[in-house]
Structures are given as C-alpha cells and as structure tokens.
Amino acid sequence: MGAPLRDVIEHLVAGIVDHPDDVVVRTKQTRRGELFEVRVNPNDLGKVIGRAGRTATAIRTVASALAGRGGARIDFVDVDRQR
Fold first, then answer.
1. Neighbouring C-alpha atoms within 13 Å toward the C-beta of 45
2. Residue 21 buriedness (CB in 10 A; 0-12 / 13-18 / 19+)
C-alpha cells in the first residue's frame, strides 16, 4: 500500500501547513514494518503535531485506517533535522 498511502499522507499534511512545498514523505522498511517519515518546514512542525499531539494522532488514525490490517507508522520531523 506504500505509494498511494504516501500520497494521502502528503496531501493531508500539505493542507495543514503554511509551507506545503516543503512537505516530503519518505517510506522506509523497518523490522516492525513500513514507516512513513514526514518532513516539514521547522515553522510548521507545531501545526502538524497540534495541541497535545491531537493533529498528529488524527493523521496517524486516518493513515492506519487506510492501511488496513498492518496499520501505518508515521514519524514527523522538520526538514532541518538530519537522519
């Protein structure tokens, strides 16, 4: 489900942030399954996380529902952070 789900996550996050051109979603395979790494502008990180993490939780819930049985893991990072 990787690419279509990646596009949905990118669309959801781009609709929330002030700098939608900086939104990049990468897919990584880990031992625990597929991980979606969402990179945003540092000024937008607070918007993506939301108060008490509610926005991030909502994005994760939608992505997990679309992913089905395996669920989806999402990590939000700013574009300045090196990994």
1. 11
2. exposed
